[in-house]
Amino acid sequence: MRVATRQANFLLPEDLIEELRKSVPKREQSKVIAEALRKELKRLKLQKALGTSFGAWKDEDHPELQQGTETFVKSMRTSDRLDRINNSK
Q: At what angle do helices 29-53 and 14-23 cross, to 10 degrees?
């Protein structure tokens, strides 16, 4: 499946352009730039999401985790294991 493309003009530092030209074949340069931009935009989106959700978790809303997540997970696994044993009888 081919993705629609449009031309865009960007100003980039000369050293970055030279490094791109030395390292990447001419026909692949747009692809490399697009992949790098996509990766950076994803990182920025995640950073924003983390910033806006910071503080959403409240300890008082999750008393089951006061002893730590490891203890909670072990208790859940033990409970599931016992349920399976009891249900198989």
A: 120
CA 21 to CA 19: how far, in whole Å? 5
Tokens of 86: 């009891």
pLDDT tier, 2 (very low <50, low <70, confident <90, very high otherwise): confident
One-letter-per-residue 3-state SS of the chain? CCCCCCCCCCCCCHHHHHHHHHHCCHHHHHHHHHHHHHHHHHHHHHHHHHHHHCCCCCHHHCHHHCCCHHHHHHHHHHHHHHHHHHHCC
The whole model's pTM is what? 0.61
Here the tokens at position 37 are: 């931009």
Tokens standing for residue 9? 């003009």
User: Structure tokens of 7?
Assistant: 């031309």
Q: Which residues of 36-64 are buried (b: 16+ CB within 10 A; e: fewer)?
A: eeeeeeeeeeeeeeeeeeeeeeeeeeeee
